[in-house]
């Protein structure tokens, strides 16, 4: 099991940047597939960026070219660099993880571990 804690959210103007962090603790010696999701009230949770245990990344089309997902191993931390932010990027952002069995994990139902979220507001 792992525990995930997000930080770095806040309020910015359109065109601005933020970097989200997700600190991972617990059983970090395993191969994890990790992702950032976002959600607004009354809407489904949307996958934004994904990173496999081997470092391969994928992005939702709405953020490709503006967002960058990365990770470091020690201490294990997931990042989301967000540039050229738009009002439609406003949401609660969640870090998620699951064991990487070399599959494709694009929906929230694939993930077993979640953080509590950090709010991003773009005006």
Low-confidence spans: none
What is the typical, i.e. mean, pLDDT? 96
SSE topology string: EEEEEEEEEEE
Count of individual helical segments: 0
Describe the sheet with the most strands.
7 strands, mixed
How big is the Rg? 13 Å
Helix content: under 10%
Approximately how much beta-strand content do the residues carry?
Answer: over 45%
Overall number of strands:
11
| Quaternary form | single chain
Features:
mainly beta, seven-stranded mixed beta sheet, globular
Word description of this protein:
With 123 residues, the protein is an all-beta fold. The protein contains no helices and 11 strands. The protein has strands at 2-7, 10-12, 18-26, 32-39, 46-51, 57-59, 67-73, 76-82, 91-99, 113-114, 118-122. The strands form 2 sheets. Strands 2, 4, 5, 6, 9, 10 and 11 form a 7-stranded mixed sheet that branches. It has a 4-stranded antiparallel sheet with strand order 1-3-8-7, with no helix packed on it. A hairpin with a 5-residue loop joins strand 5 (46-51) and strand 6. The N and C termini lie far apart (37 Å). 30% of the residues are buried. The model has no long low-confidence stretch (mean pLDDT 96).
